[in-house]
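protien #1 (seq + structre)
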Amino acid sequence: MSAALTADRVEWHLWNWQNWMTHCTMPGQYPKRASGGIRGYSNFDVETEYEEGDRVAAAAVQGILDGMVPAQRLAVYVRHGITRQVFYLRVTIDEAYAAACLVLAAQLAHRGMC
């Protein structure tokens, strides 16, 4: 793992992504409260801001997963319950998942999402 991104932090990003994938929360959904119409002003509460940060982080993880080799992406999908179908791979799911976590740690650190 990257020095800036621990294994626990990678697991948090994967947990957050899993929640985003399984709870149908789309990025850009309407906020809980309106801004009031003043240009450049927002009336978001702190919880809404945190939720938006979580959505951005989940979308970043999805983008990184989309760029991985299929075995790594499939291992993450299977391990986090997104899909149950497993195809035969040249490596085990555990090996592919470990490699995917290394790629994810490096890419998240590169994007400054620690």
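ok now protien #2
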Amino acid sequence: MVENEGLERVVRIEKKFDALSVSVGERFNNVDERFDEVRDHFVEQREYIEFAYDRLDRRISEGLARVEQRVSEGFAASDHRFSTIHQRMTDAFAASDQRMDEFNQRMDTLDQRMVDGFATADQRISELKQELTEGLSRVERKLDQFIESQSRSKVTTRRVRPSKRRR
């Protein structure tokens, strides 16, 4: 009897598993169909995009050819004017270059003087810092000595009361 119940239970589980297998298979088939539809849609979109791109490329190429022709004609007319301007500019730049060279020499001299001055200032600041540190160390030692001598003398004479100023 226990064997029959176990066997019946296995048969029920097997039927449920078979039904689940069929259901999962149907769902995968539905998903496959949907993916096929999406793929077909992408193919159609790609074909349209390629068509539109080719058409646009052709129109742009034709338009650019016309623009290039007009620009070439305009540049040919302007070349003479630009060559005259170029000669005048070359002469002006030569004079400007000479003045800039003189200015650069003066700036180099000033720069060197500033570097030397800052080096001297840095050295003097280091010396003053050392002197100040040594002086403050001496003042600190003397203050420590004074405080120590004062505390010894007050301990022997009387008990120190807190100052009213420190409250």
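The mean pLDDT is 87.
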